[in-house]
Design the sequence.
């Protein structure tokens, strides 16, 4: 079984060999650029690992895995336009480096290309692969819309937040794992367990992401902490804090949220002090562990022999230790 | 055989019955709105008519036809953002009525939904349906990019222009007809003839569109003439005029193109007088007839009995007489 890092390497090699030598350059250069800026390659690696768990090989999963990575990068590209983000992976975003029109249209092409690669699979499983991908893609867009809607809402409940990240993040991770299982010839019961394994893993992954934005180590995580706080982003930490805060603490949070101009460090520290009073870090870690525990238990239910699951189990460690 | 108008009616009825009762409203209301604003329903009607030509029925073509219409409307929605068009079909465009983010994201969902509907077909033909659609969708995006590139070019050759409209307009019309033929169980030779029939029909259709913008009857065409002239759009008329114009006539055209502020009627009349001197109307009509003649000849080659082709042949008349 290939490890997570080996699987990512296979994806990176495959991406480096795609031939996009195509006109017009304005359309394909941004796609090459987007794919070359890296990223964790988590989702396509999961497609390969999940496929290998059942079939013992990954050859037929490489193109569909690439399709999943293409789709993920398409969503980031369009999200960056919508969020007006100037930087992604330490590099200028497409709408900044080129322009917004090129970002819209090259994103559209990436969305189409993701279908092209994902459907490079055995004819027999094609209908279920397409159904899975259609449903997933729509859910991801719904998640993005809810996330944008949250920006203008004063209050978002924890349930609303969890529903949003399930749509925006978890279902694509779950679908990657399910896709691998389908490609690997798993039975329907195992396919469902794998989906749930991925969905819970995805929830843990996103909440960990929210946590690292505030409590992450700059050297390891690569981002200056507090970006979400500065942007008033409705993260798990903020939503949970507002749920359990006293009236006085709520006032302190909302005072920061409504400021039009502010010293970023002061704003981060003001919000952070409420988080610390409320033990938000521990509460978040507890929820991450809860999702990881569910995820582990889903993986246990899969009928494959235990030793084959080792590489996938390592993901739990990798995820929990992303900050170290 | 259903006529063109009957086929359009079937599509309109189907669209009116789709249940988009889905959250979040910000994502699905724009899709309902877009589909409810009408349009000619040319492409989905062609899917039905082409399918019926071979199979004698249309039931299995209705959902894929809807997918084609969904895709066409998705491209219009995103094109309208890129072109900053405030009005489409006499109604505010999505980015004007809602906002640009909602227009981007609801367009993305329409693109995904088009795959959902197009792939609602027999498992046996699914791979060829997907291949056709993937290739077509990418060509349409390329066409849009070339069209945008043309805006900043001083000179576009007639060949470059024809290549652009083939990608942006013709291939989707051709693909609609080919899709119908595949769904109707046509053999490969007929499928190819039908594709060529559609491609040539599409070329005629687009050049006719360019012509009607200048020489169309306001009462029938529903648009005030000269919109393309005002917008400096590189139409067949402009590209051809610049190809055959004398130095003096070129100067008169470029003088108009470079004006930042102008009286619209004066600008239209100035360009129109060059067109008239150069006989651009007749030259355009001759090219339209040339494409229609090729298109007719492609349809003749299709092995179906002649009487079955009558409804499709009527399209040539409908197209040529759009101005009356």
Sequence:
């Amino acid at each position: 079984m290939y490890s997570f890092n080996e699987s990512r390497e296979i994806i990176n090699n495959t991406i480096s060999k795609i031939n996009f030598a195509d006109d017009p350059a304005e359309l394909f250069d941004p796609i090459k650029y987007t794919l070359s800026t890296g990223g964790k390659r988590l989702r396509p690696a999961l497609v390969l690992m999940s496929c290998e768990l059942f079939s013992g090989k990954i050859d037929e999963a490489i193109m569909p895995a690439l399709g999943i990575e293409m789709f993920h990068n398409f969503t980031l590209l369009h999200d960056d336009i919508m969020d007006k983000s100037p930087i992604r992976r330490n590099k200028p975003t497409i709408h900044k480096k080129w322009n917004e029109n090129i970002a819209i249209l090259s994103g559209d092409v990436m969305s189409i290309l993701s279908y092209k690669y994902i459907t490079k699979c055995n004819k027999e499983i094609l209908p279920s692969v397409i159904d899975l991908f259609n449903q997933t893609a729509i859910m991801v867009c719904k998640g993005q819309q809810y996330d944008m809607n949250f920006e203008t809402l004063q209050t978002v409940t924890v349930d609303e937040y969890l529903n949003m990240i399930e749509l925006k993040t978890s279902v694509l991770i779950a679908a990657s794992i399910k896709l691998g299982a389908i490609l690997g010839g798993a039975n329907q019961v195992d396919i469902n367990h794998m989906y749930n394994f991925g969905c819970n893993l995805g929830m843990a992954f996103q909440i960990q992401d929210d946590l690292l934005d505030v409590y992450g180590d700059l050297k390891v995580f690569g981002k200056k902490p507090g970006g979400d706080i500065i942007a008033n982003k409705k993260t798990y930490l903020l939503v949970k804090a507002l749920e359990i805060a006293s009236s006085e603490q709520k006032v302190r949070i909302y005072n920061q949220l409504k400021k039009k101009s502010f010293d970023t460090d002061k704003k981060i520290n003001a919000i952070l002090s409420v988080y610390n009073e409320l033990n938000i870090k521990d509460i978040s870690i507890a929820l991450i562990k809860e999702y990881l525990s569910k995820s582990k238990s889903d993986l246990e239910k899969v009928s494959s022999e235990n030793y084959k699951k080792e590489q996938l189990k390592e993901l739990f460690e990798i995820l929990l230790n992303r900050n170290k």
